[in-house]
Design goal:
single chain; mainly alpha; 67% helix; 0% strand
Length: 140
Amino acid sequence: MAKGGKAAPWKGVARGVLAALALYLCGTALLALLMVKGAVPERAGFPVLMVLCVASALCGGLLAVPALPPLPAGMAVSGCFAGVLLAVGAGCWQGITWMGRGGVLLLGALAGGLLAGVLAGSRRGRSKKGKRVNHASRFK
């Protein structure tokens, strides 16, 4: 713990990235199982994967909000998450099809982080005098 009882910002980002990766990996495995069993048609696989990518970055970004301000937290998590996706894609398939589905998934990951920052920022309310009130401290 850092001074003042707050966790280091990188720990919040790391927790968000790990949560996003875990959610994405479990969701992808579940999608593959449902596609093999015939419950999800093959043509619906990519849109479901896109929603899963956005939702993973969104959840990871929301987990990192107590450690950093909302928008930087969401964008840091989504940037790291997109970086991991990029590294795995480049390592396993020797490249990313930017104009195909690979670029769209990376944009979805970044959009999920942006959405996390916007949603977490809107949770902070205003007091009666118009000053900003940080409600995140009550969730600790």
